[in-house]
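All the exercises in this workshop are built on plain-text protein records. Sequence and backbone structure share a record, each on its own labelled line. The structure tokens are whole numbers drawn from a learned vocabulary of backbone shapes. The record below serves as our worked example for the rest of this section.
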Amino acid sequence: MRLSIVILISITCFGMLASFADEKAEPAPPKVGDTAPDWVLQDVEEKEHNLKKLRGKVVFLILGNRKIRKEDDKWAEAFQKDYRENAQVTAYIIADMRSVPGFIPKGFIRGQLKKNPPPVKFLLDWKGTVHKQYQTEKEKPVLYLISQKGIIVFHRKANFKLDIYADLKKEIDKLLATLEIPEAR
């Protein structure tokens, strides 16, 4: 009887320690005020895009997966409507490609995306590296707005809603207002 109790307590304690270790292994997602984690990803043309090289621009990230593509596109369409002509701000949809069956060739997927292009540049996160860094979820797009200095200034997990988009737009406009305008020569 005593041995059973000792074994039960040991198993319980070990389980608790293992769960604490798992929690520590998973860093907290980046939040407003943090420096945005860097990444390098390819678009459908296999051109590399690097967050660090985008410093000096305002960057809007829409992180999603193939099951919520319509919601991702709604965010991108609203952004394009307001900022298409502004070279100081850019947006990317970063797609978590881990759920794509391994037997489907990457070239086929790229070809399909070329036939049905999203409203903004579409980056392919084949290993889910960026989605792990930013701790995204499967049910809703995860949005990050990154300042010209690489600092996160806006973060939401949300399907498209006009009031949230209005908040995002205010933040973008605030950042754009702080940009130095080059003097005409």
Notes: The CA atoms of residues 101 and 109 lie 11 Å apart. The two ends are 89 Å apart (CA to CA). The beta strands are 40-43, 48-50, 58-65, 89-96, 121-125, 142-146, 152-157.
